[in-house]
Amino acid sequence: MKIFNFLLLVLVLAALSFPAQAQAAGELEAIRAKGKIRVAVFSDKPPFGYVDENGLNQGYDIYLAKKLAQDLFGAPDKVEFVLVEAASRIEVLEANKADVVLANFTVTPERARQVDFAKPYMKVALGVTSPKSAPITDVAQLRGQTLIVNKGTTADFYFSQNHPEIKLLKFDQNTEAFNALRDGRAAALAHDNTLLFAWVVENSSFVTGIEFLGSEDTIAPAVKKGRAELLTWLNEEIARLTEAKFFQEAYQATLGPAFGGTVDPKSVLIDELK
Description:
By secondary structure, this protein is α/β, with parallel strands linked by helices. It is built from ten helices and 13 strands. It has two domains: 144 residues, Periplasmic binding protein-like II (D-Maltodextrin-Binding Protein, domain 2, 3-Layer(aba) Sandwich); 94 residues, D-Maltodextrin-Binding Protein, domain 2 (3-Layer(aba) Sandwich).
């Protein structure tokens, strides 16, 4: 009787685990069956992810998303863009609303506990932009002042943890944040330095007085925990694209023109994967 109960327990456990195993083994097939890959991107973060005047998604992350679709389906238009804010990037994965997040997602230990990051495709650090008439060139100048950040970003985390003496004015959308800076509602704005480098080109009355703050981080695709087959494919894809110099192509097509020659591509691109 004990042997029978043991065998029954083994069969039950195997049955319970089979659906998960089958799902993991068939993730790419399931995506192909749907005829598209769902990629979460920003709608208001040029030159990385934004919607242009014709309602089309554009930017560096969009360029990569279309390449993923090309290599998965043989057609770059087999991608459905899911528009997100910085604070909702993890949520869309957990809710199965997107297969991959490419919304300029900086890899951090905290986020890696909630999602699985693939190999990185870009380098990034924090920067601080302020009016040329009152430039902020050192964090100490912000003591007792107001700094604009976006909710759920690395800038939000960094200043919340390391500089409680600085008052943070937080926004969900990049458009709201930069409008607040233009309106003079804060002394400065902190964000990814790569975004700020492009923004000050279009807004010449502002300057990125602090170009590198904190550690140099990386940006990578993210998937929901447990999607092992999709993660493996993304890792292999990023490795292939890096070897083929695809990201240099993407940089020249999207970031280079936005930076206006003010940024060394080597400070952004990853030439070799470790």
